Each structure stands twice: as structure tokens, then as C-alpha cells.
């Protein structure tokens, strides 16, 4: 069975740069500082649904 994928979107420009596997036990949206290649800096990326 394939795992459901969720995208991480940059909070500054809105581009969806990263994908992660969905976790049904997580109740809040994941927020991680990652590098955005469009902004050129480390920004906060939030889980989209």
C-alpha cells in the first residue's frame, strides 16, 4: 500500500518545495525551518493538506 504524501509550503513565497509522508497520529500541522531555493534562504515551511 502506498503512503499518502503531504507537501511543505514556504511561508514567505508559498512554493511547495518538499514532500513528506502523512502521519495519522499528528494532530497539528508540521512547521519546520527549511531552505527555500526560490527565496534563497531558510524560511518556515508549513504542512499543507
TrEMBL record:
> What keywords tag this UniProt record?
Ribonucleoprotein, Ribosomal protein
Q: Which Gene3D superfamilies match?
A: Ribosomal protein L33
GO CC terms of this entry: ribosome
**Residue ranges of the TM segments:** none
Q: Does the keyword Ribonucleoprotein apply?
A: yes
Q: Which domain of life is it from?
A: Bacteria
Q: Name one Pfam family in it.
A: Ribosomal_L33
The answer to whether keyword Ribosomal protein applies is yes
Family designation: Belongs to the bacterial ribosomal protein bL33 family.
Q: What is this protein called?
A: Large ribosomal subunit protein bL33
Whose protein is this, by species? Periweissella fabaria
Q: Which gene encodes it?
A: rpmG3
Amino acid at each position: 500500500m502506498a503512503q499518502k504524501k503531504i507537501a511543505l509550503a514556504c511561508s514567505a513565497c508559498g512554493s511547495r518545495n518538499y514532500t513528506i509522508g502523512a502521519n495519522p497520529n499528528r494532530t497539528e500541522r508540521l512547521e519546520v525551518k527549511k531552505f527555500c531555493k526560490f527565496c534563497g534562504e531558510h524560511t518556515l515551511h508549513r504542512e499543507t493538506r
